[in-house]
Design brief:
By secondary structure, the protein is mostly helical.
Length: about 650
């Protein structure tokens, strides 16, 4: 029976080797390839052993204690595991998602739900998925699926069915061997050392856990420390509990002792006996120091050395405290010996202060220098903070001045606007402005205009103040009423400041833009039609050519033919220069200066005939020509299109 073989192996097995029963046709070469171990190492572990069926040989591999000699699943996954990899991953993810939501299922439906999860995991294993195999192993070892995937501990349930339990151990070991899943080995070790395990072997458990003690991913040290501290199936050993302690520091903070200090206190309270003599309670601090430094190799102190030096330091020995502070400060310790490195400096200063208080002169001098250095750092921090504060104050002052200048400029612009409005009103009353025809302007009284202007300036000033406060404090800007400002700047049709002359300009620009768009679209349509016609007439011939957007004629023989170098410099380029040179005549013929279509080459405005003024029949006076070219902000009498030159550039 498989479980009987398992029990016998656990009784006689070393932690560094595992059994394998030879099957028919298996050689040492096959075994070495199966377990991925060197052939020489395999033969060295099994001297004078012939390859006979039924013999049990040792496999030189860590954490292997189950005999997989008769496991067909091991060989199948080893050699044919990746045939349906993607399918296996999908099935595993679907089953694992159900497993994580298992706690939401009601108790009466939980068993059925677990059977569905197990079936999906088995299908994933058939596709070669090793994660699913590990989850099945956990299910057989613990007798149920857990909704979490945490590191196992000794609080989990253990399946008392020896057949299922041994099958779970087999599955987890295969998953660990083939995928390198360290968690599978840890789960195997905990299941082996659990007090309710049907094949309990705590010493094998702790030896396997010690292999993964330095793992950064799993809190294995906590399990080892628990076993040694409480004698969980093994002999109680507080020194080993200290060595594997998972606490983050040597000394506690805020008046609380660390886990390591508590362990040393337990050791000091042990009764004097031959059995407890190896803890060294009767030794003096100097001897403890010597013992600790004997573990100093390759510029590093092992955890056992830290134990002895820390024990001497707690005996109020100045030299031990000073030595331990130096080890921590310089990092002369094996990782994991002193816990986490996040707060090493505080621990260093704790031991330095203890050494200084107990009379170590070097520690006293170091402490004085350290305090002076920290005071200087604090002074530098205050200086830097004061400089930062001054820079912020200067920035704020510059922003205040900037916004004051902006506010002044805005107010000046508002005053100019008021003056222009007053001037427009005066011109309107005298009948010399086109605004006189606008009933919206004439419909407002003098007092109404002044009230609107004053309100607009007040709103501009209030907006400036709100904007400045928001920028200074970094807060959202308070909304400002700008109705009067909008009234004074609105020149759309129907508004008081709407002008027919301005509307004419807008209409002219819109018409020109529409015409240019139509001409551009027509140009490219003609090019498309020409190319399409060439395709239809000669479908098997290259395109004869086309006119590009720059006005150049691009023919088939010009495209892709490099121009040879005149100096043989190897800098040949595409036919752009040749195209430009060959078509310059064509370009000049089609494009260039032509008579202005508005003034027909005269350069004079056709509306005022070059005078700059037009008569107004309604007022029996004259006004500035609305269509002349503006020059120095005055009507010049020149044609607006060609600006008085008489010619424009374009298609002839």
């Amino acid at each position: 029976m498989r479980h009987i073989t398992l029990i016998s192996c656990l009784i006689t097995l070393s932690a560094l080797a595992g059994p394998h029963t030879l099957q028919r046709g298996e050689s040492f070469e096959d075994i070495a390839r199966l377990y991925n171990v060197p052939l020489d190492s395999l033969k060295k572990c099994n001297p004078d052993i012939e390859e006979y069926v039924g013999y049990t040989i040792d496999i030189p591999i860590d954490n292997h204690f189950y005999d997989l000699g008769e496991s067909d699943l091991f060989r199948k996954l080893k050699y044919n595991g990746g045939s349906q990899k993607e399918k296996g991953i999908k099935k595993y993810k679907a089953a694992f998602e159900k497993q994580t939501n298992l706690y939401k299922v009601s108790p009466d439906k939980k068993e059925k739900f677990q059977r569905e999860i197990q079936k999906e995991y088995e299908e994933a294993v058939e596709c070669g998925n090793l994660d699913a195999l590990y989850q099945l192993g956990r299910r057989y070892v613990h007798g149920t699926f857990y909704s979490h995937n945490h590191i196992p501990d000794f609080r989990l349930e253990i399946n008392q069915n020896i057949e299922e339990f041994s099958r779970g151990i087999e599955y987890m070991q295969i998953a660990g061997l083939l995928s390198g899943n360290a968690k599978a080995y840890i789960d195997m070790a905990v299941a082996c050392g659990h007090e309710n395990s049907p094949i309990r072997n705590p010493y094998l458990c702790v030896s396997m856990l010690e292999v993964f003690a330095d793992s950064k991913d799993w809190p294995v040290r906590k399990l080892i420390c628990y076993m040694y501290e409480n004698g969980y199936g093994i002999k109680k050993n507080l020194m080993q509990a200290y060595v594997y302690c998972s606490d983050t520091e040597l000394v506690g903070s805020n008046g609380h002792s660390s886990k390591r200090e508590k362990l040393l206190k337990q050791i000091d309270e042990l009764p004097k006996s031959q059995e407890n003599s190896f803890y060294g309670n009767d030794l003096d601090p100097s001897t403890m120091m010597a013992l600790g430094l004997s573990f100093y190799n390759d510029d590093k102190v092992s955890p056992q050395g830290i134990y002895w030096i820390h024990k001497a330091a707690l005996k109020n020995d100045a030299d031990a405290n000073w030595t331990l502070a130096g080890i921590l400060k310089n990092g002369n310790y094996i990782p994991g010996s002193v816990g986490s490195q996040y707060d090493i400096n505080r621990q260093v200063m704790t031991f330095v202060e203890n050494a200084a208080n107990f009379g170590n002169k070097d520690a006293t001098e170091y402490l004085i220098a350290y305090k002076e250095q920290e005071a200087e750092k604090e002074r530098q921090r205050r200086i830097i903070a004061e400089k930062d504060r001054q820079r912020e104050a200067e920035k704020k002052a510059r922003r205040q001045q900037m916004w004051a200048n902006i506010a002044g400029a805005v107010l000046q612009s508002a005053a100019q606007a008021v003056g222009q409005i007053e001037y427009a009103k005066q011109m309107s009353r005298t009948g010399t402005s086109s605004f006189s025809n606008n009933p919206s302007i004439n419909g407002l009284s003098e007092n109404q205009w002044l009230a609107k202007n004053r309100l607009a300036m007040e709103q501009i000033l209030q907006y400036t103040v709100n904007k400045s406060i928001a920028d200074w404090n970094g807060t959202p800007m308070v909304p400002t009423d700008m109705s009067a400002v909008n009234f004074g700047t609105d020149m759309s049709p129907g508004s008081p400041l709407w002008s027919w002359n301005m509307q004419q300009r807008i209409n002219t620009i819109s018409t020109r833009s529409a015409r240019m768009q139509c001409e551009t679209l027509a140009f490219y349509r003609r090019q498309t039609d020409m190319i399409e016609q060439q395709f239809r007439e000669n479908p098997y011939q290259p395109i004869a050519g086309y006119v590009n957007s720059d006005g150049y004629w691009i023919s088939a023989d010009m495209v892709g033919n490099p121009v040879p170098d005149s100096d043989n410099s190897g800098t040949g380029h595409n036919g752009h220069e040749a195209i430009k040179g060959k078509n310059s005549a064509y370009f000049k013929e089609r494009y260039g200066n032509k008579d202005c279509h508005s003034c027909h080459g005269s350069g004079r405005c056709t509306t005022c005939n070059g005078t700059g003024y037009v008569s107004n029949n309604l007022t029996s006076g004259s006004s500035e020509c609305p269509n002349c070219f503006l020059e120095n902000m005055r009507r010049s009498g020149k044609c607006r299109t060609c600006q008085g030159r008489g010619t424009v550039y374009g298609l002839k």
